Amino acid sequence: MIPAPFSFVRAGSTEEALDALVEYGEDAKLLAGGHSLLPLMKLRLATPSVLVDVNEIDGLASTRIHGDEVVVGGLARHYDVATSSTIREHIPLLSAAALTVGDPQVRHRGTLAGSLAHGDPASDLPAAVLALGATIVVRSARGSRTIAATDFFLGFLETALAPDEIITEVRFPSCAGVGWAFEKFNRRAQDWAIVGVAAVGGTRPGVALVNMASTPLRASAVEAALLGGASSTDAAQLADADTDPSSDRNASAEFRRHLARVLVRRALDDVAARAPSTE
Amino acid sequence: MAPHAESELALQVTINGADIEACVAARTLLVHFVRDVVGLTGTNVGCDTSSCGACTLLLDGTSVKSCTVLAAQAHGRQVTTIEGLASDGILHPMQAAFQTHHGLQCGYCTPGMVMAAVSLAAEHTDLDAAEARVGLEGNLCRCTGYQNIVAAIVAGAKAMRDRSTAVGEGATS
Questions:
Q1: What is the mean pLDDT of residues A61-78?
Q2: Which of A83, A278, B30, B148 has its CA 20 to 30 A from that of A37?
């Protein structure tokens, strides 16, 4: 399978990439790791006329500490996110989620921003970004803006990112020393999650679900119950509230609801087990 | 001002140490570039959906599935294929370990297995069997031969470490 013909732009800077998006309009797509986009193009489910390659842009993959936030560059590969000592210390949930994406070869190519921009409800990283209360920083020729992760995922493969925008970085509140968990249920190595759960503890507990609706979504009822002092077991019973899981060859909607409740309970138990005893 | 978008690209790629220059369509996949343009057919096309790992090669030293990378994305970079591992007729330690441990049956997945294993060994200081099994998540063998493949990779990784230690000692003595 070979993609339909397209033209290729190698952007040497973020400005060049943004100019190309303006010049070539909505038929242009950004190409980062390409592990969501290229498979769609090979199946002719996506046929952009121009690809704007951002892989050569300096600084777009760097990770830094800024105040009490960890700022991860959009071009950070899943492998880098999984192995970065800074990320592992401050946002271990993100590292753990990145380590479950695909397989080693996929993790060498796929990027954080690419995974978010694709907006697949079955992807692991969007749930982690939701649970962690991250902020997505985007740029266009019109300027910069920030989008709360909670406001980013709008529909199936649909996000708040405009066609002329690029995700430059993602900002995470540091969670060093806070309990966390990432639960992924699948049947085969390398597979997407049938259901997954990202959870982080602390004073503002965050719980988000993989593959329980047409978008990645937060388990708001669980979060509210935890804030209200509910036990892990009781809060987890609310895991499938306000979800709309699909039925497919992997699982029925009913089974996915069951999985969500079980996985959230396990995740909350892990969060508690990993929390410092003084918390 | 935006750079001009091209449907035909002049690429310069270093493959197994040789500088290759070629003009290809933008949509050319790296695996087809390596096989059909450069003529190195050791890298196989398996599933063509980034699942099976038969097309695994090294891009700047790390394993990638070349059915899901554009040739254009290798421009200015180093590509290593299975043909680039042996030197002066001597097998790379990972190739030798696959031979010793009979880490193959039909052999179709083998180039991808070996390239994935070389990358895996470089990323683990003391690769054990459990790490090898997890690390093979992206490589399928349909002859059901993982047992020997895992044994080969653990031995090959150790041989790679021993070789680099020997080279290091040789350089200082």
A1: 97
A2: A83
